[in-house]
Write a structure and sequence with these properties.
96 residues, 7-stranded antiparallel sheet, 2 helices, 20% helix
Amino acid sequence: MAKTTEQKVADAFKTLLNRAEQVRVDNIKVTSGTASCIGKWSMTLKLQGGKEIKLDDESLSTIKYDKGDFLLPTEDGKKDARITFYSMKKEIPRHI
């Protein structure tokens, strides 16, 4: 069975999350993260300033890809959080 676009975006997001040296959400540095893959996949990203972003399988399906960044709808639904991955340079997935 062929993967849907949402599955490809989620796979690319997880891959870059593992490879990145730095992750930023709306240009705010992620200071730490915890992940769990027992039962189902989930992750919490802690940002500078104390804010947290929680991700799970359901929220992965809502992530969109736009011009090298991943867009995650915010809880209030008014705008998208822009998630960017960096290593030595900005990381852009090649298989989307």
